[in-house]
Design goal:
The chain is of the alpha/beta class. It has helices spanning 4-15, 19-22, 39-48, 129-134, and strands spanning 27-33, 53-61, 68-72, 75-79, 87-92, 95-98, 101-116, 119-127, 139-143.
């Protein structure tokens, strides 16, 4: 039987759910390998997802041509150097290292990080898994290589 403390904690975590989650009928979770080829699709997906919660379970080899994915100053940073891409993906938390690759896993609130030196930043703010799980919002997995970079929201 749950104690009062456990029930209070569960109720408090449920209240911590991000306001963006309340308007979502499902959460899309992107899974797979982040490469120079799959980056444009992820970039478009995240640009279209500003103001929402997304799930990520991606990995990026540190040494690959056409993609920079690393941790810098306690943040995950990915971009395509010299590709004409003018967007970087920055995550505050949820990253780690596994078998020589940088991994990014969890639920994130997607925010417009502004522009710095002509580079648009998509900022991913880590959200507690418990608040997502307690919300009962369905999570749908999508393979990263299925994301179409041509699909862009029109403002």
């Amino acid at each position: 039987m749950p104690t009062r403390r456990a029930l209070f904690l569960a109720a408090a975590l449920g209240c911590l759910a991000v306001p963006a989650l309340a308007a979502q009928d499902r959460i899309l979770r992107v899974e797979g390998a982040l490469t120079a080829r799959t980056y444009p699709g992820l970039e478009a997906f995240l640009s279209n997802s500003v103001g929402t919660i997304v799930g990520l379970d991606i990995r990026a080899d540190a040494d690959q041509e056409g993609l920079s994915a690393s941790t810098d100053g306690g943040r995950f940073v990915a971009y395509r150097p010299g590709s004409g891409s003018e967007t970087e993906i920055v995550a505050d938390g949820g990253f780690g290292f596994q078998h020589g690759a940088v991994t990014l896993e969890g639920f994130f609130s997607v925010k417009d990080g502004g522009m710095n030196q002509g580079i648009v930043s998509l900022f991913l703010e880590r959200q507690p898994d418990a608040s997502i799980r307690l919300s009962d919002t369905p999570v749908k997995a999508i393979r990263i290589d299925r994301l179409d970079p041509r699909i862009r929201k029109q403002d």
